[in-house]
Amino acid sequence: MTDISIASHLAATAPSPRARRSSSWLRRGSLAVLLAGGLLTGCSTPQVTDYAKETPVLELSEYFNGTLDAYGVFTDRSGQVVKRFTVVMKCTWVGDQGTLDELFTYSDGTTQRRVWRLTRHANGRFTGVADDVVGTAEGQQSGNAFRWSYTLALPVDGTVWNVQFDDWMYLMSDKVMLNKAAMRKWGVHLGEVTLSFHKR
């Protein structure tokens, strides 16, 4: 959920391969200290099934149906807000096939459109495609949560970056859903997108 200017900012703030190599020994040393101190004990990556008992239960084809408004910010690696934006979504479903037509308007006046085409599978699994998505997006719903993983092709200074998105959505009520997506390239955290969806 980012445009060319945001992608350029990512390119400017992301560490170069040389910088990553030169600092690798520092990261290894820091990791050793954390392990020695026991600070990583019990830590694990969240799974969408952790939210299986949370309510209200998210039915993706019900929530993303009709017109929705969303309000969001993009933050860079330091946590600074780089750009604000709004989204109007027109969503329809025919059986297990859904279309999410998103129109982004950014704080600098630029606009962007993305059309997702989703397929619902058994056991809360979804797949999706869009013109600027590399391959097929994979999603899983459980309880009030939905985790959406995909790679977005972003134009940056005459080239294209394939940026990985780890996208989490949490249904708060029948009208409101919160969304937070982390972006990574070369395994390095680039920034986050945070949104609040409101169903009309």
CATH class: Mainly Beta
* Helical residue percent band: 10-25%
Output the number of helix runs: 4
**Which fold does the CATH topology refer to?**
Lipocalin
Strand percentage: over 45%
Topology, number of strands: 10
Q: Spans with pLDDT under 50 lasting ≥5 residues?
A: 31-41
Q: Major sheet: size, sense and barrel closure?
A: 10 strands, antiparallel, barrel
Q: What CATH architecture label applies? A: Beta Barrel
Record the strand order, biggest sheet.
1-2-3-4-5-6-7-8-9-10
Round the mean pLDDT to the nearest integer and report it.
Answer: 86
Radius of gyration using CA atoms only: 18 Å
Overall 3D shape:
globular
What is the structure about, briefly put?
It holds the Pfam family DUF3833. This protein has 200 residues and is an alpha+beta fold.
Question: Any overview of this molecule?
Answer:
This is DUF3833 domain-containing protein. InterPro entries: DUF3833. Pfam families: DUF3833 (PF12915). The chain is α+β, with helices and mostly antiparallel strands. It has a single domain, classed as Lipocalin. Helices cover 16% and strands 54% of the residues. It has a 10-stranded antiparallel barrel with strand order 1-2-3-4-5-6-7-8-9-10. Strand 7 and strand 8 form a beta hairpin. The radius of gyration is 18 Å and the shape is globular. The chain starts with a helix and ends with a strand. 22% of the residues are buried.
Topology:
Layout (H helix, E strand, L loop, with lengths): L3 H10 L3 H6 L1 H13 L23 H4 L2 E11 L4 E14 L2 E10 L4 E10 L4 E5 L3 E10 L2 E12 L2 E13 L4 E10 L2 E12 L1
Antiparallel strand pairs: 1-2, 1-10, 2-3, 3-4, 4-5, 5-6, 6-7, 7-8, 8-9, 9-10
